[in-house]
Write a structure and sequence with these properties.
three-stranded mixed β-sheet; Helicase, Ruva Protein, domain 3; Rossmann fold; GMP Synthetase, Chain A, domain 3; 4 domains; alpha/beta; five-stranded parallel β-sheet
Length: 460
Amino acid sequence: MEKSSKIEKNLVSEENVLNWNSVQDSFQKAFGTEIYSSWLKNISLLKEFNHYVILGVQTRFFRDWITSRYADKILNELQKHKLSINRIEFKIEGERSSKSISQKPDINKISDIKDGVLNYNRLNPNLSFENFIVGKSNNLAFLSAKKITSELSRYNPLFIYGGVGLGKTHLINAIGLALKDTSNVMFISAERFMYQFIKSIKKNEMVTFKDFFRKANVFIIDDIQFIRGKEGLQEEFFHTFNSLFDKSAQIIISSDRPPNRLDRVQDRIKSRLSGGLVVDIGVPDYDLKQKILKKKITEFQNSFHEYPNLNEEIIDYMAKEQNLNIRELIGIFNRVVAFSKMSKKPLSVNDCKIILKDVHNNNKVISIDKIQNVTSNFFSINLQEMLSQRRSRPLARPRQIAMYLAKKLTTRSLPEIGRKFANRDHTTVIHAVKTIEKLSQDNSLMKKNIDEITSIILSD
């Protein structure tokens, strides 16, 4: 035991010991006051070694939330204070955290539920039915949303789903705007609902939380997929839903997928969500994109009193871009207009191709499964062996490369990547990414292999 203590002491002494107060100050600057106060303030430094640290958090929920959203950035901040750190682990300290919170509640940092919701979830006056552009891909969702405003509880719940940037939030916001003068409208994102739920638990104010959210007669919740895997939150949402439904309150929900594809969500919740009207918003077709671009040109003219240097050929070219959602379409419109203004000349289609060359590459959807298959084939090893728990170099290095590419080429979170690699921990993924980054800088063969694998993945 004494020997073990000496080893730990020597490991720590290889570099300066972290000043945790200084680290916390950097967290507050990097993440902002709200995120810091809600999620990072109570993180404690339990153990420090030369290459990794063990951090204490209050509950399993806090650990899962922090690791899925902030782990990479926390590691980056720690490395600013101690460069050798390449891994972080979280340990749950429920008892210590509960005592410390109950003894010193930070009342100034936690606003009451009403103010918290109103400050972050005001209805956007610009997202109305009047400025929602209708096409084949969103017509059914638009008509259903309009119908709700004249016949409450006709379809209950109304569940609107579709990919990112297709207009889901616009539509449910428009419903809220249309009903706010005649109904008690509650509009909130699932993430904010969870945020208020956690704060209410911390302040022992769950009765207030329940009363506040169950008094609405129009309840609109955005991005319900964020409750995935959060059992306590799902339990509260289920009872809130039932309470509202029983008193005939209108419930409107948006998601990035239909109810039956909400993985890690309780079956009874999926059943409730499927019990009303489920409609989808698809990717905009050519005609809808044409309408959107022409509306953006009109808005540009009204705002700047000049016509952007975009001819019909360029508008046609942008409208034909495949797999673009509405948000991305507006983004490339703004980029082309900006380049046109900077160059002070009309642009050609070839100019647009150069300006938007990255858009073509980004249209490819890359899965972790594909990365794993290409990597195992490249190194001529069996995929199951690569994903196994064996740690031999011929298997471990390709596995680390596949994890590294999954982090670089997909938008999956670290825990999601870990689960795809035989349920490994997110810290294993962080370690793999750091290892391959360093090796690819120092080893030309490693860099060559990664470039070749990447090229194969992107070429299909």
